[in-house]
Design brief:
The chain is α+β, with helices and mostly antiparallel strands. It has five helices and 14 strands. A hairpin with a 5-residue loop joins β8 and β9. The relative contact order is 0.12.
C-alpha cells in the first residue's frame, strides 16, 4: 500500500502505536486526510514519523463525498488549506441567513455548495435538501483564498454564544492542538447562568508529556479575544471518539456541558 486515506485521528492512532514500538510503514508514500480539522503540529508529526506526504481534502457524504482536494506533493501545502473544488462543484459563501456575501475571497462565511453530485434530498424526506437555487448548506464556516482554495474555519453548530458574542472553538483547538504536549483538543460550550455559555477546553496529553493549565492558557494570550479564553480545563485520559473517527463533541457536551 502506497496511498491511504483517513480522518486525522486514524493517523494519530497509528503514530502513537508505532512510536513506542519503533514500527515502520515503509511502503506508504502519501496519505489523504479529511473529515475533521488537521492541526499543523499533527500534520508535521505524521509526515515526520511515517515518512509520508500529507494531502489535505474536504468533503462530506452529501457531496458523494469529495468536495475539495489539495494537489499531491504541493510544496506550499498547509494543514488548514483543503484545496480547490472538484470539477462540477461550485462554492458559495453566505451570511447566516443564506444571502451571498458581496466578497467571496478572503472573507469568512457560511459555506454552501452546488453540483451534480450534491444531495437533492434525504431518504424519507419530501422536501429538498437544497434551497430554491440549488445550494446545499454544509453547516461549515469557511474562507476561500485568492487562489480559490477552501479553508474550513469551523462548524456553525459548534459556535459558542457567550454574553451575546460568538466564540469559534476551531480557532482555539488549532492553537492548543499545535502544542507538542497535546494529543487531542476540543472546545465546547458550558451552560452559564450569567453569560449563557462559557468555553471549556478538554485535552488529552501525549504519553510521557506534562503541561500545566497555566501553560495551556498562556498559549492563547494575544491570539484570541479575552472572552474566548476557556473558563475551565478538563484533562481526559482518552478523548471520546464517534464511529466516524472524529472527536465525539455530542458526548462531551452531555458529560461536561451542563451548568
Amino acid at each position: 500500500m502506497t496511498v491511504a486515506a483517513g480522518v486525522p485521528t486514524v493517523w494519530l492512532g497509528l503514530v502513537e502505536h508505532l512510536e513506542p514500538s519503533g514500527g515502520e510503514v515503509p511502503s506508504l508514500r502519501r496519505i489523504l486526510v479529511g473529515g475533521a480539522p488537521l492541526a499543523p503540529a499533527l500534520m508535521e508529526r505524521i509526515e515526520r514519523r511515517l515518512g509520508v506526504s500529507v494531502q489535505t481534502s474536504w468533503g462530506m457524504t452529501e457531496l458523494s463525498p469529495s468536495g475539495t482536494m489539495a494537489l499531491p506533493g504541493d510544496p506550499d501545502r498547509t494543514a488548514s488549506v483543503s484545496g480547490r473544488p472538484a470539477v462540477g462543484l461550485d462554492l458559495l459563501l453566505t451570511d447566516a441567513g443564506g444571502r451571498a456575501l458581496a466578497e467571496q475571497r478572503n472573507t469568512e462565511g457560511h459555506l454552501r455548495v452546488k453540483g451534480a453530485a450534491v444531495v437533492e434530498r434525504y431518504l424519507g424526506d419530501s422536501d429538498p435538501a437544497t434551497d430554491a437555487d440549488g445550494w446545499f448548506d454544509t453547516g461549515d464556516l469557511a474562507r476561500i483564498d485568492a487562489q480559490g482554495n477552501l479553508i474550513i474555519t469551523g462548524r456553525a453548530k459548534d459556535l459558542i454564544k457567550s454574553g451575546g458574542e460568538w466564540i469559534n472553538p476551531a480557532e482555539i483547538e488549532a492553537i492548543i492542538g499545535a502544542l507538542p504536549e497535546i494529543s487531542l483538543a476540543a472546545v465546547i460550550g458550558r451552560a452559564d447562568p450569567k453569560w449563557g455559555e462559557l468555553s471549556m477546553l478538554l485535552v488529552a496529553v501525549r504519553k510521557q508529556q506534562v503541561i500545566s493549565d497555566e501553560a495551556l492558557l498562556a498559549a492563547l494570550n494575544g491570539r484570541i479575544a479575552s472572552w474566548w479564553v476557556p473558563d475551565a480545563i478538563i484533562r481526559l485520559e482518552d478523548m471520546p471518539m464517534a464511529a466516524t473517527g472524529k472527536i465525539d463533541k455530542l458526548r462531551l457536551k452531555k458529560l461536561y456541558g451542563g451548568a
